[in-house]
Amino acid sequence: MPRPALLLCAALLTGAAAYGVGWLPGPDRAPDVLTPLAPAPSSVAPPSAPEATETPPPLPAAEAISPAPAPAVPALPVPKPQPLPAQAQIPEIRHEYQRLNNCGPVTIGMALSRWGSALNQYDIAPRLKPVRGDVNVSPDELAAYARSQGMDVHLARGGDRTLLRTLLAAGFPVIVETWFVTPDSGGMGHYRLLTGYDDRAMTFRALDSYLGPLKLAYGTFDELWRSFGRLYLVVAPPAKAPVLRRLLGTRADRPAAKQAWLRATEAEAAHRGDAVAFLNLGQARLDLGDARGAARAFDQAFAANPDPGLDPTRPGWVQGGLPWRTLWYTFGPLEAWVRAGRPADTLRLSAAVLRSAPAHEEAHYWRGRALAGLGRPSEARAAYQEALRLRPGFLTARLALSTLEAPGKVRSP
């Protein structure tokens, strides 16, 4: 049976080649970066957690007696964590090809199928994308939908290969957001569901709503993944939540994980100094409440030289070092500039987003925040109302609108 027409989720595409996926140049590129495959089911038991041991303290001696030296108590060896298997594959996850702009609904549906759900994009998309022309379903929206289905959710930035392999070996598929390049429509964001890995071949296995089952070379995958701060999303039934937290380890501690990610982004920005590195540094600072430091990093990202490998169809009117669709998916610069007292910059960049994606509810929201900061409340009100028309459940926009209409209330974050 011929494959149905496939359409990317991140943009209104026309004539996109089904296998026209670009790549980022780098020393880790493998010749089979994206190789369609048929998934081979197999299951791997989760690694057991090491048990901590403790040496008991010596008993206190009586005051009037000089006791003989107490015999040394040998410390018991602490077992090392078991090594991960060389390969793992999570079986019985349903693959689905997407319709127009539906990679988000499809990918969360595939992840839920791991735990028995039969929901598909026709059930999910009307909830996540009530208005046609919505070019982005954010990770927060995917997480909220999974929670509405009774799932436990962990969403964070700053993942790495070891974490992904640990989760996959234990049977937890992982949603990742990556950059995706087609020769005719350029670069855009795209969700994929990781379902396995093979250390011998140095590849992840993934279900892609556009291309089908894939193998992704470790090095090139990381280059595509870093464009979104190595964001990962795991959904699981509540009964599996304790296992998931054990696998996450210190990453389950949100403040500690954010600090670790800040250190990683600082090191990468110092080492690579490109636009993506500064974008991630800005987001890491913003996540920890440093709006002014974040704004400086975002300024460096926009001032960097653009990478043509990420942005091969760059429009002439776009300025800055980031790919022109970046702010369709990443709102950190818009937020940082508002918080740092630079609403005019947010207004300028949100206008650029709306020029290419008029139905972008987050851009309307940040336009409203910028207008409010510039003392233009009637225009801000209209922007918030448009954001709510596009997504009636957009609670942040609703709170901002109510705050604007009742100035005595606490302003939205």
UniProtKB/TrEMBL annotation:
Keywords per UniProt: Repeat, TPR repeat
Cross-referenced SUPFAM superfamilies: TPR-like (SSF48452)
Region spans: Disordered: 34-85
Coiled-coil region list: none
Biased composition (Pro residues): 68-84
Keyword flag Transferase: no
Keyword Hydrolase tagged: no
UniProt-recorded name of the protein: Tetratricopeptide repeat protein
Organism: Deinococcus navajonensis
